[in-house]
Predict the 3D structure of the following.
Amino acid sequence: MNTFIALIKREVAEHNSLWRVPLVLLGIAFLVKLSFVFGNLSFDFDLASRLNLDASVESLLSTAVGKVLKETSDFIAFVMYVVAIFYALASLYDERQDQSVLFWRSLPISDTETILAKLVVALAVVPIVVVVLQSIVAVVFLGTQSSSYLGAYFSYSLGELGKTLLWSMLPIISWCLFCSQIAKKSPLMMALVIPLVVTVVDWLFLDGVIADTFVINRFTGVDHYTPTVLIIGLIFSAACLTATIAKRGERF
């Protein structure tokens, strides 16, 4: 367990975007707050038509501050998920490029532990950062009144967060780790081009049935949380992770 925790700490320390981006987001939140207090920004606009709020939290989000916080929280989650994807794409590829993979192979650490540590960083550490950031931003804007907002908001959003991680992010991160391990030049291009080709071929010949399940809903957000979609995603994720571990175990 200590070894696995050390691997997670190493990932966070080596990939600066995992902690620099949250600091930037917090800095932006503080600047916006200062502008509302001392500057030119104000809450004299209506964002209600752009939001899809749950009925149970509507009353607590009826103010302009609450609505801005809702959009800010969604933005924070989106940015950090993008960070997680780029982290997954770079983590294994960078080790092969700078040959540091040879050093890590010399240690008594299995390839399975290494891959799972990267998966945990993307699917556990990053979501924790999202929740912490959202909480801090709420405190910045609402002060002592933030507890009521956070209680209502997280009772609604944590369930959505879990669904996003299981139905959408797990297959995406697993695919990105696989691309990071096998790509010879650009993991990002591989991660995007192959799903794009599958989508085009499927639309041309199969009416989009395969792409709707395997590609579109994974990258743009699952629009129906059915057991079938979840099972397919879990099988796909397991296949990607197994192939990634096997490929990393190959010697040069």
About this structure: The chain has one domain: 2-37+50-248.
